[in-house]
Write a sequence for this structure.
């Protein structure tokens, strides 16, 4: 388990919407689309202004350096074909993750249309909802339908719960300040480092919109307008996401263990040192701190600092947390 998912009680200050992933169907993710689905896909592509394109080629979408694997002993010991396959899977995982985030974004913006406090906000979120639908279509065009199984993890469980149950201002904080602020940085890296121009173009195009979404979050968020209960829930959400950052690149380590020997605490700790786990965690935590400052979330920043959330764990602590997750997944 990454971190305890906070409990959100049913309240009267919000509207409850379905889970962003409620329409995903188990075991149907990669089935060939039926005729009505193909027609719908044509319609969606036409609405989004996306021309039909060839599927991605099978090579790595990002090179080993992007995942810091070029310095990892376990990776260096693989043969060329195994390296290529591993990098391809790690790249696909990044696209699947982005796809589910865009799915979540489309339900989030729909909810914010309903929760808007004035007409201008309702218009703004309607434009953003169209952006998120286009982002989702762009990524789906690259990798096909979303993977139901991939949505089954604590990060997406909590994101889904927040979008379903949370009230307006904490949602602005979590989604537009934190996640979209972090997303601009992440998508920028994906765009500039991808080996495939089509993937670079997709993320550049999404980035342009995410800048507007995050920027409007900075304008709309007002820490002083949070109720005490909302403040507590914002603090819980911040803690949850920071703890995920502090754990480091779990999914790449999991993929590596599938093609090499399984991890034990000692080999995982050595691996985290080789990939400069601390440097990566430090720069991501610094990003979160700067987002809180930009959003003038001074109380939340002070509380998180007091709780030592921005301390960078050493490789041993990181390895222990990761082993607990791997153990939890059997
Ligand atoms: Fe988006
Ligand atoms: Fe967005």
């Amino acid at each position: 388990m990454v971190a305890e998912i906070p409990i959100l009680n049913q309240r009267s200050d919000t509207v409850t919407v379905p889970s962003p992933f409620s329409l995903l169907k188990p075991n149907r993710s990669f089935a060939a689309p039926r005729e009505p689905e193909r027609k719908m896909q044509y319609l969606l592509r036409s609405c989004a202004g996306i021309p039909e394109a060839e599927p991605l080629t099978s090579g790595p979408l990002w090179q080993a350096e992007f995942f810091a694997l070029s310095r990892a002993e376990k990776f260096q010991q693989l043969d060329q074909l195994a390296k290529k396959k591993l990098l391809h899977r790690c790249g696909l995982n990044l696209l699947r993750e982005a796809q589910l985030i865009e799915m979540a974004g489309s339900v989030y913006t729909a909810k914010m249309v309903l929760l808007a406090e004035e007409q201008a906000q309702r218009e703004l979120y309607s434009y953003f909802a169209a952006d998120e639908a286009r982002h989702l279509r762009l990524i789906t065009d690259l990798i096909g339908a979303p993977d139901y199984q991939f949505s089954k993890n604590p990060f997406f469980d909590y994101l889904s719960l927040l979008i379903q149950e949370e009230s307006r201002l904490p949602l602005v904080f979590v989604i537009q300040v934190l996640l979209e602020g972090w997303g601009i940085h992440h998508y920028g890296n994906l765009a500039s480092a991808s080996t495939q121009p089509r993937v670079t173009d997709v993320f550049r195009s999404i980035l342009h919109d995410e800048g507007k979404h995050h920027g409007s979050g900075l304008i709309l968020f007002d820490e002083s307008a949070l109720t005490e209960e909302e403040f507590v829930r914002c603090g819980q959400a911040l803690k949850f996401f920071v703890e995920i950052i502090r754990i480091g690149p779990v999914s790449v380590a999991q993929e590596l263990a599938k093609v090499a020997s399984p991890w034990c605490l000692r080999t995982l700790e050595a691996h985290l040192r080789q990939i400069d786990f601390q440097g990566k965690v430090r720069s991501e935590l610094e990003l979160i701190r700067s987002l809180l400052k930009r959003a003038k979330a001074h109380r939340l920043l002070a509380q998180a600092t007091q709780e030592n959330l921005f301390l960078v764990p050493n490789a041993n602590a990181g390895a222990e947390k990761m082993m607990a997750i791997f153990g939890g997944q059997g």
Summary: The radius of gyration is 20 Å. Residues 45 and 51 are 7 Å apart (CA to CA).
